[in-house]
Amino acid sequence: MNAQITQTTSFIGGRHVPSLTTYANVDPATGEHLGDVSRGGGDEVDRAVKIAARAQREWKRSSPEQRSKLLFTTAEVIRANRDELASLESEDTGKPLTQAYSDVDVCARYFEFYGHTIESYYGHSIPMGEDMHVYTRRESYGVTGHIVAWNYPLQLIGRAAATSLATGNCAVAKPADETPRSTVRLAELIHSVGYPDGVFNVVTGLGAEAGAALAAHPGIAHLGFVGSTQVGSQIAHAAADRVIPTVLELGGKSANIVFSDADVDAAIPSLVRSIIQNAGQTCSAGSRLIVAQDVHAEVVEKMAAAMEEVTIGYGLDDPMLGPLISKKQQARVEGFLTHIGNAEILTGGTRPEGLAADLTGGAFITPTLVDNVSPGSTIAQEEVFGPVVAAMAFGDEEEAIALANGTDYGLVSALWTQNVSRAHRVAAEVEAGQVFVNTYGAGGGVELPFGGFKKSGYGREKSIEALDEYTQTKTVAVKL
Predict the structure, then answer these.
(1) Active site located where (predicted)?
(2) Which residues are catalytic?
């Protein structure tokens, strides 16, 4: 079931817009050429923003019911094209096909969820006395810009686009350099169900060109970014220069905290899944393992054994673990593993053996558990973005909390304990946007607010809260 899109262009105003130059789209599992991508830049971004601004004048006047119907229809057409979208996603990212199907389903769910919620999204009436009628309105910003990462292309653009369009904005998206095809295909599907031309637009190209142009464009009224903290800081500066709001979902170094009373056997599958999902290339990956001293040996031994059972291969063959996004990312992950100090690699840390001949040039790395990591070391502090977990031990609850909070990031954390009081107590102290107990959601469902503390970003995507991010409040006071 190989995807057949070999020429990927920008999609602006309901039409494909090629650029003068292209760059190669590469299969991360084989290194083979999947096709060519239009290298859009400032001109394409300017065209897309202006067309979106014209479309928004009509779109913002549509009723919540009208938008709701189109959002529901979008969800239906996404599901109708599930096989094609999953194939595109798996080829571009390298992720296992089952995970790619999940991404398609979640993308559809965003449109469905916001189709429901937008019809019940109201302003407030404020009592100010019998001679005054005061109320608030939630109004759209105008044209929203979206620069998204390569790890979950459909999920990331789905949650941004669905929220933006539901609230009466129009959108211009810049997909990641490496993974543009599913976003362009989504734009085609959105256009096909009857949205006005220009409501949702996609500009393909390189981040330093098209992405930078989108972030700096004066016609963008609201900006969202998913990616590294370093680039997110640059995006925030660009937005601050024009005094526009931003939603930033950035890096993470999320911790699984395993207490001595945890059900270890029940926890192990989730601990492994939290670091191998999407080859560990997840901002909310469970990349730190903080374990009570008296069960530390048992936990790391069982986790290492489970990691050694992980199947590795080509995404469309649906293994448990696919390749990293690129050879560059593979080299980056390997670089971290050469600087672990006195820590010990219990399993992994190598390129897998025994792969099919056509995969030998792929960006693979085995699931890796590094034990006895110093809390202040690079591998414990920085986001690796690969299937690498750094394990360390703690003596008491206070130390566990200190270790969990001991990085610049605060996206997700999980606690494993049978003590309900401890679960609530520690959850209140952990500095993270989401805290799971006896499970690991890696961002959780569509209904859960998602966003970071500290350098993991600000603002919230997902859930009803996201509607507030994409609207601005107007207060109207009428003297009676």
Answers:
(1) 249
(2) 249
